[in-house]
Amino acid sequence: MRTLSYAEAISEGTVQAMERDSSVFIAGIAVDYPSGIFGTTTEAFKRFGKERVFDTPAMENALTGIAIGAAAVGKRPIIVHPRNDFMFLAFDQLINLAAKWKYMYGGRAGTVPIVVRAVVGRGWGQGATHSQSLQAPLAHFPGLTLLMPTSPHDAKGLMMSALQHDGPVVILEHRSLFGLKGEVPEEPYSVPIGKADVVRAGTDITVVATSFMTVEALRAADELAKDGVSLEVIDLRSIRPLDEATILTSLKKTGRLIVTDTSWEMCGVVSEIAALAAEKGFHDLKAPVRRIALPNCPAPVSQALEEVYYPKASTIAKAALVMLGRTSSSLGEIDMVDDFKGPY
Fold first, then answer.
1. Residues 225, 199: contact at Cβ < 8 Å?
2. 283 catalytic, yes or no?
3. Active-site residue among 130, 153, 165, 174?
4. Mean pLDDT calculated for residue range 98-118
5. CA 40, CA 212: separation in Å to the nearest integer?
6. pLDDT tens-digit profile of 223-240?
7. 79 closest CA partner among 61, 63, 95, 92
8. Alpha-carbon Rg for the chain in angstroms
9. Which residues pair with 291 in a beta bridge?
């Protein structure tokens, strides 16, 4: 099978969906630029032109309202935010209107199948207002589907699933994943929404991860395997709906759980999954659940401080060793060097 980058996979899935469905269009800041949001919209602009791929002013709330209106009359808009922090301005339309549409109108006003793509930032000193990861507030509201694909395969498959879904879907894409390469089928395909993926089988500890933290968890698992420690890594892929069965089945096997996310722990995804373990998997636990998330403060602007701000593969590996009552002195060598030069 051929190999594509995460960005190429999103691009291909989008183009194939637009070929199959003439109602799909893309709108957002810089989507028609040659750089095309890390290259994810460049090919679509070349193929379909400004009639279906067009730049917009910075009017996030208004654009979301326009997209909801377009969806209500039969279109399938894709809105793209170069930074997911910009979505705060669109929360009113997204949460108060799109998410509640089917509940308020009981199916008598059709559906609003909008797809909102947003990039989660990190690194190169972009600061507190451009480094956040909004899955926790978005997942809080019924009516929204929230996806965080990690692999190129899932990025394409979940994009195509989102563009066939009847309700509003938010896809959060970590910018550190856009260069990640993996096998991707050429033909159109869908990855089921609401199904987590066991990306590495193990027996000692279950690590449930989201987005880029799945990559870090796999690096930790590779390193610990050299010392005979076996991590089972679950890529959550879908935050809402949440695949509780896959998490609890793995917990039953390993008896230990680490949860790691790209955002903060308080009221976050890691806390939700820890609560799930306490409520439905308590009797399988051999040790307290460990949450690995951001420190309890906004991201620093200083790149040097960022180096210690974000949890890494070594953070996960050290937590796993502590959970098992073991130590190691060489784990710092497994962390990746971030050479990204922003913005997009």
1. no
2. no
3. 130
4. 93
5. 18
6. 999 999 999 999 999 999
7. 63
8. 20
9. 259
